[in-house]
Design brief:
Purple Acid Phosphatase, chain A, domain 2, six-stranded mixed beta sheet
Length: 212
């Protein structure tokens, strides 16, 4: 496709099991996504769970991904410095969600509205001559550009990065951080999903003889 196309990429990272943040974060994300023109992509770049978060422990790391899927994320990256999902938990999670799970240090593809976007995370490299996104969380800026590669950097806890590019030249138009306002109201549907996931986690923990 040769016509100019705007693509807005929203990214989060460093959730670290703070699932109580997600209903309010969803309100911010969904509002900004509706306001963006052209194609939008919504990605989580990792550090999604933490062993210090009870809900992560009780669900073997699955709970935050269930919520991201309910919000409408297009993909989530796992397997970097995150708490690893046990193989059985990974299979159970993959069978319950719509969004794909992209593995760290791998090349992955995502199709959206007739375009195929390529992502290389961590040590992985894009195919020679192929434009796409490189996920480099050592980079503190939300985004940078190198040739026809858009480098997506780390995102602080409680923020959303918004990166706008133009195709087919892969020109970086804008990159900014959006901070979550403490007064942001929770998105009702995601609040309800969080309550359901939490109730299921309590039931599972009780069956296993654990407590909150």
């Amino acid at each position: 496709m040769s016509s100019t196309q705007t693509v807005t990429v929203f990214t989060t990272a460093n959730l670290r099991g703070a699932t109580d943040l997600l209903p309010r974060l969803a309100s911010l994300i969904l509002r900004e996504r509706r306001a963006a023109g052209g194609i939008t992509l919504l990605l989580d770049l990792g550090d999604t769970c933490s062993p210090d978060a009870w809900l992560c422990r009780a669900t073997q790391g699955r709970a935050p991904f269930l919520l991201l899927d309910a919000i409408g994320y297009d993909a989530a990256f796992i397997g970097g410095e995150d708490v690893p999902l046990p193989p059985d938990a990974f299979r159970r999670l993959r069978d319950r969600i719509v969004m794909p799970l992209f593995l760290w240090h791998r090349v992955s593809e995502l199709a959206k509205r007739g375009y195929v976007f390529t992502f290389a995370a961590g040590r992985a490299a894009l195919p020679p001559g192929s434009p796409g996104f490189h996920i480099d969380r050592q980079q503190q800026a939300p985004a940078a550009t190198e040739a026809r590669t858009i480098i997506l950097g780390d995102v602080p806890h409680g923020h959303v990065a918004q990166t706008t590019i133009k195709l087919p030249d892969w020109t970086l138009v804008d990159a900014r951080l959006l901070a979550l306002d403490p007064a942001e109201p929770p998105e009702p549907t995601i609040a309800a999903v969080l309550e359901l996931v939490t109730d299921e986690a309590h039931t599972y923990a009780q069956q296993q003889g654990g407590t909150a």
